[in-house]
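The data are quoted verbatim for reference:
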Amino acid sequence: MDKIKSKKHKGACCPPCPIVQETICGNFNGPLDSSEVWSATAGSYRSGTFQLFNDPFSTGVVTATGAATPPITLSAAPGNTDSQSVNNPTSFTITASLGDSGTYCITLYRSLCNVPPPLVCDVLAYVTNGGSNTVSVIDTATNMVIATVPVGAAPFGAAITPDGTLVYITNIVGDSVSVIDTMTNMVIATIPVGNAPIDVAVTPDGTRAYVSNEQAGTVSVIDTATNMVIATIPVGATPFGIDFTPDGTLAYVDNQSGSVSVIDTATNTVIATIPVPGAPNMIAITPDGTRAYDTIELNDTVVVIDIATNTVIDTIPVGGSPEGIVITPDGTRAYVSNFDSNNVSVIDTLTNTVIDTIPVGTTPRGIDITPDGSLVYVTNEGSDTVSVIDTNTNTVIATIPVENGPRGIAIGQVCEA
């Protein structure tokens, strides 16, 4: 019997890898200093085209850079567009001065062969319930509570690490900090700290958590890799709110005795003390690191501190007994929760004036904002609810029931493969 010879066709073995196109567009408003608007792990995308448009009414040139082959370098004068096609892109950042704005569009091409699926990410809000000894986890996409986590007694402050893996919760009774793993929403560590821990803030690089101990007059510094206290810093009497400069070199701590302590985070020592009238409560530093906005509970005001000189340069009347404060990612507005007025004051940071007042629930306390700046979440301690504010309209678009006595809140992006 004759053998049948099979014919081999070059290239007929396997079908080509399909290529998927993705498009991402967005708006930007200065000031932005190399602000990352997109990123991906190496190898996720084979190529892409990056486009930058500068609005005609902008006053200066806007630029963009990114990691790719060749590197992304865009520059657009007012009213102009610049674009560039590259291979293997992994990041895209924009720099724009105050008053400059525009849009960007990214067209990406991804091979479906041998490429890991993209991360699945959710923006979650972690709310401390002081009367229930729990933390409510809210999915900001649905505004639903998706988990409830038991923690220590009388939880107050909350802070999430920049990578979204851990949440730190202060427990006033018991003098401890609970550490929540965001993948499992379970407490994985409990850290002893000073007497009556109130607020907690995580450094921009995620390596340290600073905790204000109200009755001890100290700040505990936690190493987030080991969850151990590595330093205790004496500050003023009854320390409360904490925030960092964007580069993480300085921590500003409110002392309700009438001052703000400035900590050098390299040495963990107080290098300046700023006198502040009244009882400073919570503090927020602008994204460009030039000013701090501080709620003064007894005076119904917000004071503005110049970071370069560590002096108070302005005072803004707000509602009754202001508590929490958060600044939008673009630095143009500050949102202040007013405990006695049951509302939120919106401050224009260019003029330092209140431009809107938003009714919320009873005795609003904690406040935070989503990473894209579109939504502000406010805890209402007296209503056992969280109000959701649309920052485009400055109106409440949802009210979320939580557990008893919501106080602090921390919002961050949590990703899982």
Remarks:
- Residues 120-416 form a domain with the Methylamine Dehydrogenase; Chain H fold (CATH 2.130.10.10).
- The longest strand covers residues 19-29.
- Residues 1-12 have pLDDT under 50 and may be disordered.
